[in-house]
């Protein structure tokens, strides 16, 4: 350990063990997954980011070693730690110059946004010198005036290569194509068990895999179309989950997008019709239900059932509104009579 500390010091990294870990030091081969909490601070103690509070939840960082993570120093220092160890690493500017961009991505993720939102399509060094705002005052200041940072890391778990499923971002294109059918099956099983939210997440992840690959193809080309045909059934399954969860406008958007490309997709019309009915778009719902029967006459009875349910909901709503208006006018009349006699 002393040799490691001396080597780090020579590289402009100073390590201070806060709490020793347990067991033997891992060899950390490429492909190892490390799970750790981090707190990033200025040398005066000002905290920039803390994984235990970021986004209002405590979610540790997961990193696959050897995948050229933008902040290379994290891989370097993690390799000196045992499981459950907590340590402070004070790192020179040469190791922290890209931290503002990394922090922006981590903050985006914690807020449920695209990790690359707000970043320009150029290399990290070019972005540093572009004077482009990162959307956070503290990061803009750090980008304009790079300085040493203190990273407090707590190594929670070390997983050897092959003992876990890679996150989507860490997969090769071939691995993404291979894992999609498996995720699809897992989503179907969850939906059948009634775990709708978890099923939706599976379908969403599978769609993300394919969308990532589709971005590398020219729209309309054979490769792009092939991927889109794989995305469509997953998107329809996702829409079914969103229907159950009451996310009707999201269903309208996704199904309309499918129909704009595949005008004979009966399932998209059916789900869009149900979403229209749920948000009181009676005319649009009837048009979509009619299209469903046109595309597949065998669904006539199912469509008739949906129409009856919609009509019953509309009648109930109208009756409720009439009662509300009647009570309102009755209240106004009584109030007026009281005021007159008074």
Automatic annotation (TrEMBL):
PROSITE patterns the record matches: FKBP_PPIASE
Which named protein is this? Answer: peptidylprolyl isomerase
Protein's organism: Oncorhynchus kisutch (Coho salmon)
Localization, UniProt = Cytoplasm
GO MF annotation list: peptidyl-prolyl cis-trans isomerase activity
Q: Please list the residue ranges annotated as the PPIase FKBP-type domain.
A: 31-85
UniProt gene name: AIP
Keyword annotations of the record = Cytoplasm, Isomerase, Phosphoprotein, Repeat, Rotamase, TPR repeat
- Pfam families this protein is in? PPIase_AIP
The record's Gene Ontology cellular component field reads: cytoplasm
- Please name the SUPFAM superfamilies in this protein's record: FKBP-like, TPR-like
Q: What is its main location?
A: cytoplasm
Which EC numbers characterise this protein's activity in its record?
5.2.1.8
Catalysed reaction(s) here are:
[protein]-peptidylproline (omega=180) = [protein]-peptidylproline (omega=0)
